[in-house]
Amino acid sequence: MKKSWWKILAVVLLVYTIVGGLLLDVPRLMIVNESIRALYFHVPMWFGMVLMYLISVIYAIKYLRRNDPEADIASAGFAHTGLVFGFLGILTGMIWANYTWGTPWHGDPKQNGAAIATLIYLAYFILRGSLENQEQRARLSAVYAIFAFAAMIPLIFIIPRLSSSMHPGSGGNPGFNMYDLDSTMRRVFYPAVVGWILLGIWIASVRIRLINVEEKIHELEYEKNK
Amino acid sequence: MVTLFLYQFRSEFRKKSIFFSLLLYLVSLVFINYMALGIQNRSLAPAIWSALFWVAILSALVNAIAKSFITDKPGSTSYLYSLASPETIIVSKVLYGFMLCFGIAYSGYLFFSLWLTNPIQDTPLLLFTLLLASFGFSATLSILSAIASKTNNGTMIMAILSFPMIIGILMMSIKITKNCIDGLAREASFDELLILTSINLIAAAITFLLFPYIWRS
């Protein structure tokens, strides 16, 4: 129970995000109107995604240095969760864009960058699936994960900032800081970010435990059948 | 190191058929583009020209670099690896791949000028972009080819792994090429060139650092 304080915190924060995010006052703005509430659900997905991928890379580096199979499983688990966050981010973004921009896919550089990041990590799982030798799979996918993360940085952090975009917060469009003069949104936004990230870590840790248990079952069955 | 590079060069050059098959691949590709666009339609919008150009170059180069590890014979590979350190091998592979890529990309440019007109106004800048992009392609694709060569269906995996990785280089090159066609001042392409160079540096550094881990298997 003592160790699970952060899980309770995650639940509390997310309940607050959902209730507060849907009911508390938000600034009235042209065009965006009530859809500004997407901020609490869409933006934390990106923070979560980048953080999950970052943790995945850290575990990948750890694997290459120590050759520890658990680090490989952890790296895959976090990449998986990052992928889920990425999909949710694209989906929530598409719903928002459908109402605000008129089309779900507007060809916005941020949208395209997110789609590419998702493709890269889908390829990561294809690569994992196509290698049978466990040690080789761990090593090659760790190498690919590090490379993929480095390739992703210019795509999602640099290139979108260069080109003009309709996305809030870039190209002269009002971002978070500009609408939010009286900081009402921050009261929900920061807890939302923390809550979603904690939830992501939770999902990843459950997934890692699941895979570890499966491995153990395999081993036991193998012993029994020997 | 130099010896290894020369060895690489000579052994690849002996397989002239590969280089010529790549050239023929490229010619067919450009010709298909030309036929598909309609014969009388000789003037293309800048954006379309540069997109077509880079997509054609991309598919030829992915095939070219995929060869660098996937088709290596297991026996000769292990012999090579017992002679030289992995760092030397990857550097020589990347340098060789760079020359190959540039050769193919430049021929691609010639074929495009033959069939699909040559709208480029700033040729030196285009050549510089071709050089930068060839290096980036070579550095990125070499390590992916090394990864893909360990799987059962190498060429398929190679394509899946490399396409999303290469988009950054490709987008920057397409934009610079478009600027070259429009005849914009060189300062207009400065940001893109900077990003292209930094992507190249990142890719080269990571390839160099990570390759030893792949080769150990």
User: What percent strand of chain B?
Assistant: under 5%
Tell me the major beta sheet of chain B: none
- Write down the overall geometry of chain A: globular
Radius of gyration of chain B: 18 Å
Kindly give the count of domains of chain A. Answer: 1
Category by helix and strand content of chain A: mainly alpha
Instruction: Output the helix-strand order of chain A.
Output: HHHHHHH
Describe this structure in words.
The complex is a heterodimer of chains A (226) and B (217). By secondary structure, chain A is mostly helical. Chain A has one domain. Chain A is built from seven helices and no strands. In chain A, helix 1 (5-23) crosses helix 7 (184-225), helix 2 (38-66) runs antiparallel to helix 3 and helix 3 packs across helix 7 (184-225). The radius of gyration of chain A is 20 Å and the shape is globular. Chain A starts with a helix and ends with a helix. The model of chain A has no long low-confidence stretch (mean pLDDT 79). Chain B has 217 residues and is an all-alpha fold. Chain B contains eight helices and no strands. Chain B has helices at 2-14, 16-37, 46-70, 74-83, 86-115, 123-148, 154-182, 190-215. Chain B is globular and about 55 Å long. The mean pLDDT of chain B is 81. The interface between A and B is medium-sized, with 27 and 32 residues.
